[in-house]
What does this fold into?
Amino acid sequence: MTDDAPGAEHVLLGGTPADVVALDRGEEVLFGSSLSLDREQASVRKLFGGTKRCLLSDVEKVSVDDGKLKIRQRGKTSAFAGFAVAKVPNAFLFVKLFGRRGRAAAPPRRRRA
It folds into this structure.
């Protein structure tokens, strides 16, 4: 399937136009039980309970590197959040939706063998 086929983006990413509409309406879009995105922030579940949030305006970069989804917060040494791509349903849709919010989402990179 090529990118110019109708609906190719949604098939490849595993998402639906409903995800985009929900986000535009200000609803939270869930990516499994540990990660969510809404119009204003990304939220992650903490290991021992609770939730930590990062305003989208404070996110420096969202990327997929070496099989990990990474969310980098501006001005912080370590990543705000990092997940194995296999553990996040529709991880690439998260990156795409984040980029759609007008932020600079980095394209996926592959490790050289």
